[in-house]
Amino acid sequence: MKYIDMHCDTIPRLCLPETEERGETLRRNSGHLDLERMKQGNAMTQCFAVYTNLKCQPDPYAYARKVLARFKKEIKENSSMISQALTAEDMMRNDREGKMSALLTIEEGAVCQGSLERLREFYREGVRMMTLTWNYPNDLAWPNRINLQTGETEPETEHGLTETGLAFIAEMEHLGMIIDVSHLGDAGFWDIVKHTRKPFVASHSNARSEASHVRNLTDEMIRALAERGGVMGINFCGAFLSDSNRNMKGGGVSRTADMVRHMKHIRQVGGIECIGLGSDFDGISGELEVDSPAVFSRIADEMSRQGFTGSEIDAVFYRNVLRVFTEILH
Question: Are 126 and 84 in contact (CB under 8 A)?
Fold first, then answer.
């Protein structure tokens, strides 16, 4: 069964000094995701994030350009297997030709450094989706409060989007760049609902009522996302799937049964049409039942075991996300 995965951190991982020293590539590496395992899992499209940690990068724009250049290099060197896609039509054409598609995204809007021209520059490079924040406030918006040392979390209900952030989302809708609310604070989420018209996504977030971490969406958020025609990608991180994994050393255990439990709740709240996949591969740790794209079929098997129909599984695996891509990307 083909799939679309809305989020991975594989390209930044390949840019780490220790990974570069080992000569790892997108075709084959020791992380969660590579092209060979994507092919085994029948990938249609993988979204590759340009992720930047503001606490580690004094010049986030320059670092993002470095990661973007590595992405371009890897796609060029593996052109027989995968092509960069800008639209849903590109993805469907590549699929017909037996090739996988790569969609370029940004995780951390601060890489634009408040400049709409830099946003447009990234769009010209092929970026088609962007989170406004990662885990730190920036010139666009505030995330929910997460203490990365203690694991304590708290919803950000006071501060949402800045004036610059509002200008960015208006330009993103104009360009045809998907607004991604994963990592955004609660107040910021509702600013997106208020100030946008098109569907938006939560590329790698689960249901907060099923796992209380603030990286997940409340039922009210799920309904608002669904009513707008958006999609949320089930995140494979154990801490976002079950409270039993909170604060566990190594990240806990990620189980397909928990993924499907979240899907069932989201289906009840927002409908099957708002569910997709957002693995967060190479951005998460712990023991993963689904530890690479090669075994995505384990999710489908568990969905079937828990009563999902074939058409519902197709919807979650690729049709829902492809619908949003078709509507927004041009």
Answer: yes
**Tokens 């990608």 -> residue:** 233
Is residue 139 a contact partner of residue 110, using CB atoms and an 8 Å limit?
yes
**Structure-token match 């190594």, residue found:** 250
What are residue 83's DSSP bridge partners?
101
pLDDT of residue 44: 99
Q: Element (H or E) spanning 47, and its range?
A: strand 43-51
- Residue 12, amino acid: P
Distance CA 160, CA 154 (A): 14
Please list the rounded mean pLDDT of every run of 10 residues in the chain (330 residues): 98 97 97 98 98 96 98 98 98 98 98 98 98 97 87 92 98 98 98 98 98 97 98 98 88 96 98 98 97 98 98 98 97
Interatomic CA distance for residues 236 and 281, integer angstroms = 8
Residue 70 three-state SS = helix
pLDDT, one tens digit per residue, over 265-311 is 999 999 999 999 999 999 999 999 999 999 999 999 999 999 999 99
Q: In whole angstroms, give the CA distance from residue 322 to residue 92.
A: 9
Prediction pTM value: 0.98
DSSP-assigned beta bridge partners for residue 50: 106
| Residues, the chain | 330
Distances (CA, A) of 281 to 3, 35, 49, 62, 251: 14, 13, 11, 24, 13
Residue pair 68/89 in contact (Cβ under 8 Å)? The answer is no
Q: Nearest-5° angle of CA 105, CA 124, CA 36? A: 45
Q: Which of 296, 307, 300, 328 is nearest to 39 (CA)?
A: 296
CB 325, CB 88: distance < 8 Å: yes
